[in-house]
Design goal:
The radius of gyration is 24 Å and the shape is globular. The protein folds into 2 domains: about 325 residues, Neuraminidase (6 Propeller); about 120 residues, Immunoglobulin-like, CATH 2.60.40.10. With about 450 residues, the chain is mainly beta. The strands form 10 sheets. Strands 10, 11, 12, 13 and 14 form a 5-stranded antiparallel sheet that branches. Strands 20-24-23-22-21 form a 5-stranded mixed sheet, with no helix packed on it. The chain has a 5-stranded mixed sheet with strand order 25-29-28-27-26, with no helix packed on it. It is built from no helices and 38 strands. Strand 22 and strand 23 form a beta hairpin. Helix content is about 0%, strand content about 45%. The N terminus is likely disordered. The relative contact order is 0.15.
């Protein structure tokens, strides 16, 4: 076993738990083009090709600031060619013969249009798609009295949505702040997102107690794998556990894993690589701060860790970092974290998984954004990585919410301008993506002024 020193921050310490389309296509907007051919020219000897226009189902759409919109176009007849022109938007890209991708800028909320120039046989025409751009809005879902109305506030907790019931939010474990900070726990709570009511869940058997670990879902099952973290005495002990969280199961089982992971790992990155049906662990704190990459191959109840060969300049070792697996670009994203003491990082890296061996690439370095231990989630529809809060110095919390554009060639950090009353700045928060409701769920955490037993949403 190896004891890990957990750095303090904020009130006493601040540890932390951890473009395709703002809106679905097919919204009826009444958009079309007169079938007279105007404003086109028809050759005198040409056979009347009939209407040449864009059907109504492509328009009337809303897109968030900095977001993306995927539209499936419908035309009134066979189309020879079409091309988009935009007003007030950064980019509109023809994906294929019937699909259009539109990307909105940050800071420009003016109404915008896409004009689609269409040619079918000898007839030409055009259609317009009106777009409304709006800012993401914060909404308070619930504040609660700890224990009697909801869970004790915590850091290093883990949250996820039930894959079999996306209306069920689960929150597990971490360090409680009561009766004192760093009180180890292994409790499980669930919230019904419709009624917004919490309930503590009794599990079928004892849950493992490791703080600063991570969970990743098992595809096709109502199960997660739990890896990493420290014991209540701050010992980093190797473990891998499986949790069946369906209401009629709620059962833990240890997974015996052979191979490379022979030491514990504190606050590692841990994701499921869907293209290769494997799990990846990267960066963390074991015998020291590191950015080693290991793959975990799971076969039923058997598992094996393998050191993953990588090329490129390896990032500085760190823990408390922000991370995501982006299937669209086939890479892992790593941002920020702590490399020692209160030495924070503001760099952003990609591990290119489509190359053999995988390769580390530095995407950005933003010292003004340096932090550790904040909330983070992948906004798949708008293809961006969203981070909220964290601490830059172990004594204060970063204000606001930032997004990293994941489109290749456009990788840039932006502070998101929002509407609604924003939550208090904090570290140690938690975030969960809720794609069915086009929002991120965020809450918990602490600051120098107190702790926050609350849950918020921000839409996209």
């Amino acid at each position: 076993m190896r004891a890990i020193w957990v750095m303090g921050a904020l009130a006493i310490s601040a540890c932390g738990a951890p473009p395709n389309a703002g809106v679905d296509a097919g919204v009826d907007a009444g958009v079309g083009v007169p079938d007279s051919g105007t404003p086109g020219v028809v050759d005198a000897g040409a056979v009347d090709a009939g209407p040449c226009g864009l059907k109504a189902s492509a328009g009337g759409s809303v897109i968030t600031e900095g977001g993306r919109l995927a539209l499936e176009l419908e035309f009134d007849g066979p189309v020879v060619s079409w091309s988009p022109e935009v007003t007030g938007l950064v980019m509109a890209t023809k994906v294929d013969q019937t699909h259009l991708a539109v990307k909105a800028p940050y800071g420009d909320l003016a109404p915008s249009t896409v004009t689609v120039a269409i040619e079918c046989a000898a007839r030409k025409g055009s259609g317009t798609i009106p777009l409304t751009v709006h800012r993401p809005e914060w909404k308070l879902l619930k504040k609660w009295v700890e224990v009697t109305e909801g869970p004790i506030n915590r850091e290093y907790g883990m949250g996820w949505l039930d894959s079999g019931d996306p209306n069920r939010l689960l929150v597990f474990g971490g360090f409680h702040y009561k009766p004192k900070q760093f009180t180890a726990s292994s409790d499980l709570w669930e919230m019904n997102l419709t009624t917004q009511k919490w309930a503590e869940v009794t599990m079928a058997n004892a849950a493992p107690q490791f703080m600063g670990g991570r969970v990743a879902g098992i595809p096709g099952k109502r199960e997660v794998l739990f890896f990493g973290g420290v014991t209540g005495t701050f010992d980093a002990v190797p473990h891998l556990d499986r949790f069946e969280y369906a209401p009629d199961k709620l059962s833990w089982s240890a997974v015996v894993a052979t191979g490379a992971s022979t030491v514990g790992d504190y606050q590692p990155g841990f994701v499921f690589d869907s293209k290769r049906n494997r799990y990846l662990s990267f960066c963390g704190q074991s015998t020291g701060f590191h950015c080693a990459v290991r793959r975990l191959e799971l076969n039923g109840t058997a598992a094996a860790w393998v050191d993953e060969p990588v090329t490129g300049t390896q990032p500085i070792g760190r823990s408390g970092h922000f991370f995501a697996y982006d299937a669209t670009t086939d890479r892992v994203i790593v941002f920020g974290g702590m490399r020692s003491g209160n030495d924070m990082l503001g760099d952003t890296w990609a591990l290119e998984l489509g190359e053999t061996p995988a390769r580390w690439v530095k995407l950005a370095d933003n010292p003004e954004l340096k932090r550790r231990n904040g909330a983070f989630a992948l906004d798949e529809k708008n293809h961006r990585f969203v981070v909220w809060g964290g601490t830059p110095d172990g004594a204060s919390a970063v204000d606001g919410i930032h997004a990293f554009d994941l489109d290749r060639g456009f990788e840039t950090w932006r502070k998101m301008e929002t509407t609604g009353t924003a939550p208090a700045p904090r570290a140690s928060g938690m975030a969960v993506a809720d794609p069915a409701n086009r929002r991120l769920l965020m809450g918990f955490g602490n600051s120098s002024t107190g702790y926050y037993p609350d849950l918020w949403s921000i839409d996209y």
